[in-house]
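haha ok so turns out i had the wrong file open the whole time. this is the CORRECT one, sorry everyone. sequence first:
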Amino acid sequence: MTTSHLVTIPARSGKAAVVEAGQRIRVINTHGQQVVDTWAFRRGELTEFMSMEHSRTFLSRIMARVGDSMVTNHRRPILTLVEDTTVEGDSAGIHDTLLAACDRYRYELLGCEGYHDNCTDNLAAALAELGLVPPETPSPWNLFMNIPVASDGTVSFQAPVSRPGDSVTLRAEMDCVVAFSACPQDIVPINGVDCIPTEAHFQILEG
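then structure:
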């Protein structure tokens, strides 16, 4: 197996990479409490992208388990979860599919004045490094994000259950562009109770 070098997703920032069908991507929660917003777009046709609403329908649940594929807005598999070190025993990994990427409007509603780093802008900047422009900002797969849903339908914003060095490994089911944002949320405790965003990392793995 060939492993690429470790790519840093800087705290509060984004990174993107081109992957081929069959390659795997390991996303590492380096410090253990960092949410990593994750997107995938079909290479050469960015209007087809990994879709949370289509994936929830395809899976008949709100979170993927090892072996599950996330699908595009054309209902085709694009990324498959092949390994998740956050899983213990029969417990499933916790990776949110419900919440939209944070943006300037989210932080304005939270009381921020002036510019605040956000995942929507991080996606655009990460793709721009590859000379690409996202057709829109799809709802991301929020890796490591812990958003419990109560019996009354309400949600809460909790710290991740992941530990330093925990990772997920994803297999590309088509040639695609993947993008990641080390979420800059520092007001609610989704990046840990200290609300301090940190860097994360990823690697491209060759089978």
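Residues 29-169 form one domain.
again sry for the mixup
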